[in-house]
């Protein structure tokens, strides 16, 4: 289930808010110009599902969003658990690539067609951890400091939307803040 957990930037163990109420999540994020929404799931995604099949399943919604927000490029980032040393290495590399705080020159727009991932949004003096699940759409404004954790066993397929070819390139802030915050697996284990 989708989760929003807000923590002070200097007190990662302190809960300002923890909610799985998606209407509340949307409302809280909207106050900061972040769009959160849910699309009806249209396809079962497995390791054998191609990018083309995922894009075809969501074509209407994708086209509507592109038209509305002037997005021109779409692709699918996906990882599914496998076995063997190559997988372990690939997963660790992929995870590490987004685990440091960065910004993008354009909005970060992602739709989760499968699996789970957590965006940590550093907004003013707080960190908003948004655990996205299949069906979730998140649009984070350009320039927002953030990092992303796909967890120790990455499993997700996300449609990515861009205005420019290099829209995914991160500008790393050099702030080590991400290291102090609970990772995706810890966040999810803390249900009480
Ligand atoms: C869920 S898509 C991979 C993560 C990504 O593109 C990004 O920029 C994270 O900050
Ligand atoms: Fe990013
Ligand atoms: Ni999978």
From TrEMBL:
Protein name, entry field: Acireductone dioxygenase
Coiled coil: none
Cofactors (names): Ni(2+); Fe(2+)
Important to generate the dianion (site feature) positions: 110
Pathway: Amino-acid biosynthesis; L-methionine biosynthesis via salvage pathway; L-methionine from S-methyl-5-thio-alpha-D-ribose 1-phosphate: step 5/6
Record's cofactor remark: Binds 1 nickel ion per monomer. Binds 1 Fe(2+) cation per monomer.
The EC number(s) this enzyme carries: 1.13.11.54, 1.13.11.53
Family: Belongs to the acireductone dioxygenase (ARD) family.
Keyword RNA-binding: no
Site (May play a role in metal incorporation in vivo): 101
Organism of origin: Streptomyces coffeae
